[in-house]
Predict the structure.
Amino acid sequence: MKGANNSVVTEFILLGLSSSREQQLFLFFIFSVSYGAAMLGNILIILLVITDSHLHSPMYFLLSNLSFFDMCQATFATPKMIADFLNEHKTITFQGCMSQIFFLHVFGGSEMVLLVAMAYDRYIAICKPLHYMSIMSRRVCTVLVGVSWIIGILHSASHLVFTVNLPFCGPNKVDNFFCDLPLVIKLACLDTYVLEILVLTNSGLLSLICFLLLLISYTIILATVHHQASGGMSKALSTLSAHVTVVVLFFGPLIFIYIWPFESFPIDKFISVCFTVFTPLLNPMIYTLRNKDVKEAMRKLRNRHVGSKQIF
């Protein structure tokens, strides 16, 4: 490989989810539908938040940004995975592999920080409702989203700065459908123990800090509501159920990954699928499609569309 990495490996072979031709055709259909539904659902959320004035609030602004992150998270690897189901040779260039690693950690890290921002929004809305609009101004929301992007980019760059210069001189088979950083590092032609510890520390520390902040935020919210009103616990659980569900779905796979970060298990591929396909698909369903405001916005959008058709 020419350049700074001094490597003879110019491409990696992705082993994918299955070697069976029949299973690959079945998975091609399943993931094509899932990816299409995830993209349409999240695009719809963004469109509704932009076009409906009733959704011009901090909560929905953050939700629309979460939808954008989910679209990016689903797109960095899923389209290639779907195309590879129809290809006999599943390869990716060195540059393409490094790009997948970079974007995975940018969008994953940014989404973690955004989930913390959304928990903070719910804390202000429930615990300090009279000051909600003054505290959660558009400027503050924009800063929170900007900070999530910055942390995600810095987090990813700190991984890539040493990975791109590793010497890859022989093995080039990645046992997944995308370039997963721990699997790629293990292919390097040197002792990667120290690098593995650095990767675990970097990603694990960010995940742990975000998870603890989320845990503290929701604990304070539940305690506050329970103390202020009778039956408050059930009301709080109802209000926060969507947020907590998404947090569990997002951090559940991460907990498993960081318990055995550099060991390979059959369930690893399933966890990767959940992280890149099913979580972006579930976000619109869990967060907003059962929300009365969003349902009303969808109804108005549908009526406008029908009305414009009747005019023509």
Notes: The two ends are 59 Å apart (CA to CA). Residues 1-5 have pLDDT under 50 and may be disordered.
